[in-house]
Amino acid sequence: MEFYNLLERMVQDNETHAKWLNTLSFMENAGARKISACEHPTKVSLIQLKHAAEEHRHAYYLKKQIGKLDPDFCKTYDNTELLAPIATRQYLHSLDVKACRYIQKAFQLKKEELKYAAYLFVTYAIEVRADELYPVYQDVLTKESSKIMVKSIILEEEGHLEEMINQLNEFAEDWQTHADVILEIEKELHEQWMNAITEEVSLLNYAS
Question: Would you say the pTM of this structure is higher than 0.90?
């Protein structure tokens, strides 16, 4: 409910809403770049290419939606055009670093194998989060009769989660045990990110 209320406050102010869309776009773009960075030099699966392409498209789609609010808003990913920019930039990076540390300890992998395992577990955690975040956001958009829509992203993220589970099943029989640890790491980082955004939105509302 707290997240729903936060989204309501953001959606009711066009400039804050634009920054939220831009922040989500930044996250999708960062995710796509991380997926590409995890690619093996030669053994790149069709699913991995598909995920990178779709995350890039989500970043583009969200960025384009900003034009419905005001074409002059959020032209870049500069700190001034993101919500809680420091926490936003740290979130995925910290998840990556902490997940890699855990995976290496759990599986003792070589460099290229570690990159692939990190792609599987980190992407899984992000897809679980996306499956929670985007439907709540869409509910608020529908309630507020907003011109913005994220229904197409919701459908694709659901597909991604299913694909990640299939890949993890092939990777290790006990993948869920390890995934639960990564989900706990993500949960803590997500809370820090949300707290930073809540604080900034409160300050913006107070200033206006």
Answer: yes
